[in-house]
Design brief:
The protein has 455 residues and is α/β, with parallel strands linked by helices. 47% of the residues lie in helices and 19% in strands. The protein folds into 4 domains: 95 residues, Beta Barrel (OB fold (Dihydrolipoamide Acetyltransferase, E2P)); 152 residues, Rossmann fold, CATH 3.40.50; 50 residues; 40 residues, no CATH class. The chain has 12 helices and 14 strands. InterPro entries: Exonuc_VII_L (IPR003753), Exonuc_VII_lsu_C (IPR020579), OB-fold_nuc-bd_dom (IPR025824).
């Protein structure tokens, strides 16, 4: 059976826009505002400042949108993979026909947004090097002017003024009053730090406040305050909260004190203690100076004793001069006597008689040496001649040509001219050469005798 549509029935036909608008109205009416929890994925931050992402769980996902006005109030940076809890309204985006949630509020699931924002900012600034010890400026030993950046109504200001007055009463102190918590407190703190640096009258800045919750300390965990502390040309001491409280400003400061009171104590020394140390040092220097002066006086007296009166010194000089004159005269006389003796020896050596006698002796020695040389040379030549003749005889006895002179001959086989020592290698008809003492013969073998029979 089919379904019949009578002519009286009126069909309701919707356009896509009408249907989408109707669905949108129904969804927004059914879910005006809802809380939702999920994991961020596909996060996008276009230039408009809005945030676009998806929220998903194990089996489903939903598109999410957070307009710039709302995400500027976030205390943390959304990132992919972060599980969050959000509050918003369900709506439909007509151009794509998809439903989405428009978020008004967002916070990390499980951890507070302030703690997450703290950890994210700490990691980022640490990666930039703002916490490195190389950037820490040394604190002045005795600052003449200190600027206190704190709340004018807080107990921290009272504690710091009391400590500074007790430690160094005549110290010049100026107070830069700022709110230390609440909306806009971070901007006012950063502005106060920059103004103090612009005036450039202070030697030291103390940024402090009393203890509180993480939300109370949020201004000191802001990026503006952290960078203002880091960029300060004047050294900065932070004393925020209690000993267990740490803020981002503590990491960028030049020195972190555990409390406002500790910050004031680290800023200046105790004046009375300085006076005591100065007095002790002065007494030590005076004693050392007196001791040194006494040593100099004693040394001066010793030198005065060693110094002689000019007349006495002149007399001693005259005596030493006379002694030196006598020594020179004695040495001069001994020198003259020695020179005379040398001159006598030279005259004696240069007289003609000894010289002639010396020449005669040298001639005789020369003749004797010449005679001996002639004898030895003649004898040596005679022995060399005999040895030469003996060698010549031995060479002649070994000379094969000498054997030929006695009637012998040397036979060689042709054409290789090898010496013939036996008949075993010869045949009738072979050509041979016979070397005589003078000349040679070329012959042909007709017959041979091997020493046994004829061929």
């Amino acid at each position: 059976m089919g379904t019949e549509i009578s002519g009286k029935d009126v069909r309701k036909i919707h356009t896509i826009s009408e249907l989408t608008s109707d669905i949108r109205s129904r969804l927004e009416s059914a879910y005006p505002f809802v809380w939702i929890v999920g994991e961020i994925s596909n996060l996008s931050r276009p230039s408009s400042g809005h945030l676009y992402f998806s929220l998903k769980d194990n089996s489903a996902q939903i598109a999410a949108l957070m307009f710039r006005g709302q995400n500027r109030q976030l205390r943390f940076q959304p990132e992919n993979g972060l599980k969050v809890t959000g509050f918003g309204r369900i709506s439909v985006y007509p151009p794509r026909g998809s439903y989405q949630i428009i978020l008004e509020y967002l916070e990390p699931a499980g951890a507070g947004s302030l703690q997450l924002a703290f950890e994210q900012l700490k990691r980022r600034l640490e990666a930039e090097g703002l916490f490195d010890a190389v950037h820490k400026r040394p604190l002045p030993f005795l600052p003449q002017r200190i600027s206190l950046v704190t709340s004018p109504d807080g107990a921290a200001l009272h504690d710091m003024l009391k400590v500074l007055k007790n430690r160094y009463p005549n110290l010049h102190i100026e107070v830069a009053p700022v709110p230390v918590q609440g909306e806009g407190a971070d901007r006012q703190i950063a502005s106060a730090l920059k103004k103090i640096n612009a005036l450039n009258r202070s030697d030291l800045i103390i940024l402090a406040r009393g203890g509180g919750s993480l939300e109370d300390l949020a201004a000191f965990n802001s990026e503006d305050v952290a960078r203002a502390v880091f960029e300060s040309e004047i050294p900065v001491i932070t004393g925020v909260g209690h000993e267990t409280d740490f803020t981002i400003a503590d990491f960028t400061a030049d020195y972190r004190a555990s409390t406002p009171t500790a910050a004031a104590e680290s800023a200046v020394p105790v004046k009375e203690r300085l006076k005591t140390e100065i007095s002790s040092t002065r007494n030590h220097l005076c004693a050392a100076f007196k001791s040194h002066l006494s040593r100099l006086r004693l040394k001066n007296l010793n030198m005065q004793e060693k110094l002689l009166h000019p007349r006495r010194s002149l007399s001693l000089s005259r005596i030493r001069l006379d002694e030196t004159e006598e020594k020179l005269l004695r040495r001069f006389k001994r020198l003259i006597a020695w020179k005379k003796q040398q001159l006598g020896w030279t005259e004696k050596a240069l007289s003609p008689a000894p010289l002639f006698q010396w020449l005669q002796q040298k001639r005789m020695q020369h003749a004797q040496v010449h005679k001996m040389l002639h004898f030895y040379l003649s004898e040596d030549i005679r022995r060399k001649r005999i040895d030469s003749e003996n060698l010549q005889q031995r060479l002649n006895s070994l000379n094969p040509f000498a054997v030929l002179e006695r009637g012998y001959a040397v036979a060689r086989k042709l054409p290789e001219k090898s010496i013939i020592r036996e008949t075993g290698n010869l045949r009738p008809g072979d050509s041979i050469e016979i070397q005589l003492a003078r000349g040679s013969l070329r012959c042909r073998i007709e017959e041979m005798d091997h020493g046994k029979k004829k061929l």
